[in-house]
């Protein structure tokens, strides 16, 4: 039996048994596999979209794709990395189809964007600070934003982020450093401090 919160992933022999049962049409085996990895897939999808509904849709789509393509998984390969790569590819496809079109339709002209008030040095309430941070995170470059969200919102470790995005650990650290540096610059007008 699989532990309820199998966050570290499943042992290769357990995966092999589940795959065989799934190929034979065992619905319970498919549900066990889904439960073991759905939180990590959700964290990855949420880092892309920052929207719970879109992330949940992508989790469903990822596990549907897993069911359809289970025979393409090569035994001996890191299953979690393979699954997260499938999820990542689906996120990219979904983003290209939907979010880029929405952003173009809803784009605000530069002259209509809000400018920080002259008295930005005054204290900001916690809810205002959260809103400022959220807006500034949205202005980061795509990869920096993804890594910042995965690290600080989803509490993933650098190694997990590297695996999920299929990039090196050094790249994760570098992009995270750049995200923090850029956030400081973006938040400076709102916070009243100099970097």
Plain-language structure description:
The chain is mostly helical and 195 residues long. It has two domains: 10-113, Rna Polymerase Sigma Factor, Chain: A, CATH 1.10.1740; 121-190, Arc Repressor Mutant, subunit A (Orthogonal Bundle). 70% of the residues lie in helices and 0% in strands. The protein has eight helices and no strands. Helix 2 crosses helix 3 (52-69) and helix 3 packs across helix 4 (79-106).
Brief sketch in words of this structure:
This protein is mainly α and 195 residues long. It is built from eight helices and no strands.
Task: Record the SSE blueprint.
Elements: H1 12-23, H2 27-49, H3 52-69, H4 79-106, H5 126-138, H6 142-153, H7 158-165, H8 169-191
Helix pairs in contact: 1-2, 2-3, 2-4, 2-6, 3-4, 5-8, 6-8, 7-8
Features:
elongated, Arc Repressor Mutant, subunit A, mainly alpha, 195 residues, 2 domains, Rna Polymerase Sigma Factor, Chain: A, 8 helices, single chain, disordered N terminus, 0% strand
**How many separate structural domains?**
2
The CATH superfamily title of the largest domain: RNA polymerase sigma factor, region 2, helix turn helix motif
The H-and-E topology, N to C, reads as HHHHHHHH
CATH fold description of the largest domain? Rna Polymerase Sigma Factor, Chain: A
CATH secondary-structure class of the largest domain: Mainly Alpha
Report the sheet with the most strands, covering strand number, pairing sense and barrel closure.
none
Mind telling me the C-alpha Rg?
20 Å
End-to-end CA span: 53 Å
Mean pLDDT: 77
Name the helicity range.
Answer: over 70%
């Amino acid at each position: 039996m699989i532990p309820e919160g199998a966050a570290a992933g499943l042992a290769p022999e357990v995966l092999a048994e589940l795959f065989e049962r799934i190929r034979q049409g065992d619905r319970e085996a498919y549900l066990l596999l889904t439960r073991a990895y759905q939180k990590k897939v959700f964290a990855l999808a949420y880092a892309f979209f920052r929207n719970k509904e879109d992330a949940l849709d992508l989790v469903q789509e990822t596990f549907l794709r897993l069911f359809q393509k289970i025979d393409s998984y090569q035994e001996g390969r890191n299953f979690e990395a393979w699954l997260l790569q499938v999820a990542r590819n689906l996120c990219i496809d979904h983003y290209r189809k939907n979010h880029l079109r929405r952003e173009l339709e809803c784009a605000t002209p530069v002259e209509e964007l809000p400018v920080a008030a002259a008295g930005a040095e005054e204290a900001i309430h916690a809810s205002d600070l959260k809103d400022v941070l959220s807006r500034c995170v949205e202005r980061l470059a795509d990869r920096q934003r993804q890594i910042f969200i995965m690290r600080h919102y989803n509490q993933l470790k650098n190694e997990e982020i590297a695996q999920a995005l299929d990039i090196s650990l050094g790249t994760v650290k570098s992009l995270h450093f750049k995200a923090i540096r850029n956030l400081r610059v973006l938040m400076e007008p709102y916070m009243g401090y100099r970097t």
